From TrEMBL:
Organism placement in taxonomy: Bacteria, Bacillati, Actinomycetota, Actinomycetes, Mycobacteriales
Organism of derivation: Rhodococcus sovatensis
Keyword ATP-binding appears in the UniProt entry: no
Pfam family name, one: Acetyltransf_10
Protein name: GNAT family N-acetyltransferase
Listed InterPro entries: Acyl_CoA_acyltransferase (IPR016181), GNAT_dom (IPR000182), Trichothecene_AcTrans (IPR052523)
Length: 202
């Protein structure tokens, strides 16, 4: 497999959202927000598009991998050290997000507040989302995105943090030297796993 890795700007958000919506269609965190499968599948693409545009793209850490044929295969959403979802930014996002969340707004806020309560304060790059299209799994696209960003972390001497939303993926991140630091549950009972990668040992 060969891939090109590109930095996303606002005009790429819909493309990245489509691959993330596909990747996260059965994700336990997303299922906590939308337990109903049909509603979840209908909402995810718009949800990721609005989230990317309002909260992530400006940080410069949204990257995506494309195949030789030019199709998007995977996307990674990294937030730089110190990034905060300010109240002003959240207010600007509401007109896009509320029609998508509708009756699930309080579930989404509950998930957000649980994640925030466990979010470390030490400086780090935060991997908010990583997903490969179901058609392109196992071809190294997610690994290429991880290697790309983690090289940047090592070069800049910055640690990295993520919340693994499914126990099935812990081993994936351990390959990249992330270690489990904590587990906690969402309101649905789904177990989340905090993982940290220190660059100090490199
Ligand atoms: C997890 C995910 C991103 C992996 O994407 P992918 O493009 O298939 O991964 P890659 O092809 O780059 O895999 C690289 C290596 O990791 C291994 N790997 C992939 N998924 C793995 C998993 N869940 N556990 C352990 N190893 C895994 C691959 O076998 C491969 O190993 P190799 O280098 O020895 O061949 C993808 O399965 C996905 O999008 N899942 C749904 C969304 C999700 O759960 N995201 C993570 C939220 S915590």
């Amino acid at each position: 497999m060969t891939s090109r890795i590109l930095s996303a700007n606002a005009s790429d958000s819909r493309l990245c959202a489509s691959v993330l919506a596909d990747a996260f269609s059965e994700d336990p965190l997303m299922a906590t927000i939308w337990p109903d499968r049909g509603r979840r599948h209908a909402a995810l693409s718009g949800y990721f598009d609005a989230s990317l545009r309002h909260f992530h793209v400006a940080g410069g850490g949204v990257r995506y991998a494309v195949t030789d044929a030019g199709d998007i295969a995977a996307a990674a959403v990294w937030d730089p050290p110190g990034s905060k979802q300010s109240i002003a930014r959240t207010l600007r996002a509401l007109p896009s997000l509320l029609p998508i969340l509708r009756g699930r707004t309080s579930a989404a806020l509950g998930v957000r507040s649980t994640l925030d309560a466990h979010h470390p304060t030490r400086p780090h790059w935060y991997l908010a989302n990583l997903g490969s299209s179901t058609a392109q799994r196992g071809h190294g696209f997610a690994a290429a995105l991880m290697t790309d960003q983690l090289a940047r972390c090592d070069r800049d001497g910055v640690d990295a943090y993520l919340v693994c939303t499914s126990p099935d993926n812990i081993a994936f991140y351990e390959q990249f030297d992330f270690v489990v630091t904590e587990t906690f549950a969402l309101a649905s009972g789904s177990e989340m796993t905090s993982m940290w990668r220190s660059c100090a040992a490199r």
